[in-house]
Amino acid sequence: MESLDQKGRILTCLRDFFISRQSSEIAKACIALSHECTASVPIATTNWPDVEFAFNKLFVGPQAVLAPPFASVYLENDPHVMGETTLMVRRLYQTVGLVSPWEGKLPDDHISLELDACLHMRMGLLKSGSAQLCDIYSFFLNEHMARWIPAFVAKINETQALSPVIGWVGRELDNWLARERRRVDQSSSEQP
Amino acid sequence: MKKQIAFFVDTRRCIGCFTCAMACKNQYHQPSGVKWRDVHPMSEEIYPHRECAHLTLACNHCEKPTCLEVCPVVAYYKRDEDGVVVHEQEKCIGCGNCIRSCPYGAPKYNPALKKAEKCSFCWQRLDADREPACVQACPTRALQMVDLSNFDEPDTVQYIAGFPRFTKLNPSIRFRPPRQPLEIRRK
Amino acid sequence: MPERNYDMVKKALNCPVTRRQVLKSLVAAGVLVAVPGGLMRAATSSDKINYDEIFYEGPYETFRNACPRNCYDTCSIVTYVKDGAVQFVEGAPESTFTDGGLCVKGNSYWNTTYSPDRVKYPMLQESRGSGNWKRISWDEALDRIAKKILEIKDKDGSLLGLALSKYSGNFGITNYGVEGMMSSLGYTTRFVGTPCWPAGIDAQNYDMGNMWCNDPEDFAKSKYIILWGVNPAWCSVHSMKYLFDAQDKGAKVLAIDPVFTQTSAKADEYWQVKTGEDGALALGMARHLLDKNMVDREFVNTHSVGFNEFEEYLKNEITVEWAAEKSGIPAAVIASTAEEFATAKPATIWIGYGLQRHVNGGVTVRSIDALVAMTGNVGKEGGGARYGHLQTWGFNYHALVQKQPKGSKGFSGTTGPKGEFAPELEETKFSDRTLNINKTARGLLEADNPPIRMLWVSCKNPVSQDFDLNLMKKAFKKPEMVVVVEKFFTQTAELADILLPVTTNLEEWTVNASYWHYWLGLNEQAVKPLYESKSNIEIAAALSQKMNELSPGSCTFPTEIDTKEWMIKEFNKGIYDLFGLKSWEDLKKGPHKAKLTSTAAWHDHKFATPSGKYEFLSELAAKHGHNALPKYKANRKPYAPLRLLTPHSKFNIHSQFQNLDWMHDFNPEPYVYVHPKTAADKGIAEGDRVLVFSKVGEVKVKAKLTDNVPRDALLMYEAWYNKNNFNVQNVVDDESSDMGKYKTGAPGVAIHDQFADVKKA
Predict the structure, then answer these.
(1) What are the b/e assignments for A37-52, b being 16+ CB within 10 Å?
(2) Is the pLDDT score of C424 beyond 80?
(3) Does some domain include residue A156?
(4) How far is CA C267 from the centre of its chain?
């Protein structure tokens, strides 16, 4: 991760957080994130198994998830996946030569896949400053992610009581998106 | 008379199963709360057995559609070849005029898209020589697509009891009223 | 702010050609980079890009599927897929029964498959019922399960402490692999029987030697149709067109039901029979036919035994007036209808399953069978005593038939568990231990030597659907481990230790038949299983692999399977001949119908009874503790002022479908239906929240007033509303019906012999 800039590192932590499978992965992502941004929660004394239970209630299941981590659910105002939005996102990935390793078994508009796509696109931009790539990345941030992430974070905030740690990560996601949109909106040759 | 396709609702055969309403959802995936077709039980004043007779209604593709008349951006047009009233959602600005003006409540507000939308008579399916999704799905052939220019089924009406009479619009829909059985009830 | 070219992006998103062009130019410009530790695979240089792999873009692909629910109609489905995702479903046009359309439930399969609330991964509950879940890998899940199984084996010397709760959640034939999995582990405990239709099955077996109904597509040949205790307008929508066709041809349709249903509204005549007194009514009609000499003597003399005894019974103990008093139907009406029925040639009776969910259900079916038989309508096209059939279920049951590991110990009995769908298995020294599926709660609590230490649940939702909810919740505390295989987080899943994600019918290979019509449908894997879901046989194979890793030889289920091959293995010459197939692949072109020599069951009058004839008097029935004749049996004595009926809704198949958002759009909440006079007596107004209560428990729900229900009854449609803890099983106990043990291993349950009271909440 040393080759990434700070925003890139934050992005990686966020991506890894939302795709976590158990408490050790959640902890690793949160701790790494706390190195990059001041945590508003006491990371050192967090009970990670409790965070895991809350994480599953919000994003995984088996109960009906409280904050579904899929764009379609928010953009189509109807709780389902693999619809128009999922396929549109998949097409955007195709445009920049990216393919999800889950090949449709995990809907392409899962937050972690979208964040991973951002990671790839911003790396490409930093390397080349391509206007075309900038258009695509800007579109993805402004016309897609900006339209659902706030609602997603709002859902997370509704369940703050379940886990302040997750609430903090939600806010960092919000912050990251806001800052990244501003940066990309400015000149494409801006330094990170 | 020019070709005007219409829904024919034979309430004698209709069993209120909601297959038609769900077939529409299955085809177009409207968001929660947005139903282009819905099934309404007839009131007990009209049919004395609660929830045992129904009207399945979507859009009536009227001869003089009010939605078309009140749309400020001409997002509606009536097809010449079959009289289907099409809503072009890309043009829609979500002003709500059509939603407010249609007395049959056919145009619905889609909160995700912030635009209106309504039953399209599945015109894309019609153009591909297929039946509308709801018509194809009906298990009793109670919901049919007919051409009013040559429709002559007996015992049918344009305004069945419980269906509002808006003659200026001239809704393209026909109904056959339901029957009741002879009843033997315990004392 | 520089102008961004979003139009280019939108064009790329809508047009695959543009997309390719954009990607090519990005690659050529060296823009794209590999990201170490990235989730997605990136194209970094042109020679590494497989454009075809990235750009799948084609027209619709269609697949053949079948609805595997416990429903008469078992629809054949055509699934439209694009970009590897289901777009919509339709009914198969090739089947005259499905006729191109599904139902309100079938049309919601897209919603089922892509609901974000699906159980996605194997999950472990911190402690049963805590609501705190950890995600675990399949390997860890199976490891825990396998270790528990081995522990039980070690402790008890057998696997009788492992129990299976399974029924009809998924009737795709390969799902019998769950039973097969159990057998492949050893001798286990099985909940046998069926809550569904066992009393009637036994009744038809006593009378005719098998349960076998006419092809429902021959209703149009009938001149008189009685729909007795059945509501096809809600529960077999595809059958309705045949009833309408019959009416159009001049047939009379009579609906007999304590409740005025949607079906009743479509009939020519409706009888509000007193619940549970259908037997009396049928016997009254039979008596009248005797008096009027309107018995088909030719049939009775040539093809039956015991009619003289039956005749004597009717003459001595049954009168039309008595039948009128018992059933609430006037004597004159009983008489004239009996005559009409006997005169119409042919006439038929559709015997519903609700009809036999009573303590006298079996004998009631026997008395209705008798009415059809004595009027010469058995074996006639357009005639018959229609209940169901299993003629098209002659598969290999390859998935089901697995051998116990060598040295397995079990129950010392000679007969294995029965199921009405699967074949009889050969006798062995040991067998599984069988408990009554209709008394699951009791079974879990009371089984001993050994007790039930582990419960595996698949294709069933006992906590939502089985009787006496309070007892069931207690019972679920007993086992040391509960494993539930599920699509959604049901009330049973809430009490699991380990929850395993299962595939929907659009994600697995299987084949489906119906117990009503005569069509066969292929079920292809239309899309890959979502998340980490596995089909039941994949789970079995994976478990076997883990078992054998830990203890070689402890499970005989193959550890590597090809699920498509396993579907193919279900076919045999019998099926091919019956359906006129050269190969299973013929079904890819569409569902096929059995080649029937006649649309009538028993057309050759060669009954499968011990006498080879229709048995008005059945010695076998007597041997099993019933009356040899279909003698009147009284209904259950009420223990509360009102009868409580909990039949099926059109919006769900038990706990499937009502939980979906789409279904909520059309049916948002449950109700109790109360007669207006009953409501007035209790000061209950339309829409009031009320308490339905009995010695069993209570249910809080909104009231709707209607005289569709009789004055002396309450009605609630059983369903699982996932955002609501409404559950009718709070007020339904597990009282048995009279018959069912003979053919299904356990008596049925008197679901409609329940009683309750109601008051404002």
Answers:
(1) bebebebeebebeebb
(2) no
(3) yes
(4) 26
pLDDT in tens, C676-724: 999 999 999 999 999 999 999 999 999 999 999 999 999 999 999 988 8
A1: in domain: no
Per-residue pLDDT, C55: 66
Residue C639 and residue C755 in contact, taking contact as beta carbons nearer than 8 Å? yes
Interchain proximity B30–A79, CB inside 8 Å: no
Percent of chain C clearing pLDDT 90 (strictly above): 89
Find, among C319, C306, C436, the residue nearest to C366 by Cα: C306
Shortest Cα distance, chain A CAs vs residue B32, angstroms: 5
Q: Give the minimum alpha-carbon distance from C472 to chain B in angstroms, rounded to a whole number.
A: 33
Residue C296 located in a structural domain: yes
CB-based contact, B111 to chain A, within 8 Å: yes
For the domain B5-176, what is the CATH code? 3.30.70.20
- pLDDT of C27 reads 85
- CATH code of A39's domain: 1.10.3480.10
Residue among C4, C55, C86 whose CB faces A138 most closely: C4
Give C535-578 pLDDT, tens digit per residue: 999 999 999 999 999 999 999 999 999 999 999 999 999 999 99
| Residue C631, in any domain of the structure | no
Specify the range with the lowest mean pLDDT, choosing from C45-49, C363-367, C430-434, C467-471: C45-49
Q: How many CB atoms lie within 10 A of CB C731?
A: 27
Q: Closest Cα of chain B to A7: distance in Å?
A: 31
Q: Which residues of B fall within a CB distance of 8 Å from A78?
A: 29-32, 112
Nearest Cα residue to A73 out of A62, A89, A57:
A89
Could B110 and A77 be called an inter-chain contact, meaning their C-beta atoms sit closer than 8 Å? yes
Mutate to test the interface with A, among B28, B29, B89 (most CBs of A within 10 A): B29
Return the number of other C-beta atoms located less than 10 Å from residue C324's C-beta: 19
Inside any domain, residue A138: yes
- C741, C712: one domain: yes
Q: What is the mean pLDDT of chain C?
A: 95
| C696, part of any domain | yes
Which residues 75-114 in chain A show a CB within 8 A of chain B? 75-80, 83-84
The partner residue sitting opposite C89, judged by closest CB among B26, B140, B185, is B26
Whether C264 and C168 map to the same domain: the answer is no
Residues of chain B found within 8 Å of residue A76, distances taken between Cβ atoms: 29, 31, 112
Instruction: Using the 3D structure, point to which of C9, C26, C51 is the last residue of a domain.
Output: C51
Mutation target for A interface from B25, B27, B32, B34: give the one with most A CBs within 10 A.
B32
Tally of domains within chain C: 4
Report how far apart, in Å, the C-alpha atoms of B183 and of each of B13, B48, C330 are.
19, 12, 12
Average pLDDT over residues C324-342: 98
Domain region containing A38 = 6-190
Nearest to C38 among A53, A81, A120 (CB): A120
Site from A95, A119, A137 to mutate, C interface, most C CB atoms within 10 angstroms: A95
Q: 3-class secondary structure for C413-458?
A: CCCCCCCCCCCCCCCCCCECEEEEHHHHHHHHHHCCCCCCCEEEEE
Q: What is the pLDDT of residues A164-181, one digit of tens each?
A: 999 999 999 999 999 999
C412 in the same domain as C371 = no
**How many Å apart are CA A150 and CA A177, to the nearest integer?**
9
Contact C190, C182 (CB under 8 A): yes
Q: How is chain B split into domains, by residue range?
A: 5-176
Q: What is the ipTM of this complex?
A: 0.96
C283 with C241, same domain: the answer is yes
- Domain hosting C711: range is 642-760
* Residues C567 and C650 reside in one and the same domain: no
In a domain, A127, yes or no: yes
Interface of A with C in 145-184 (CB under 8 A): none
Whether C278 and C253 map to the same domain: the answer is yes
Q: Would the pLDDT of C29 be above 90?
A: no
Instruction: Name which of C111, C648, C665, C678 to mutate to probe chain B: the one with the most chain B Cβ atoms within 10 A of its Cβ.
Output: C665
pLDDT of residue C606: 97
Whether A146 has a pLDDT exceeding 90, the answer reads yes
**CA of A164, closest CA in chain C: separation in Å?**
17
Total number of domains in chain A:
1
Within 10 A of B127 (CB to CB), how many other CB atoms are there?
12
Name the band, by pLDDT with cuts 50, 70 and 90, for residue A128.
Answer: confident
- Same domain as C379, residue C264: yes
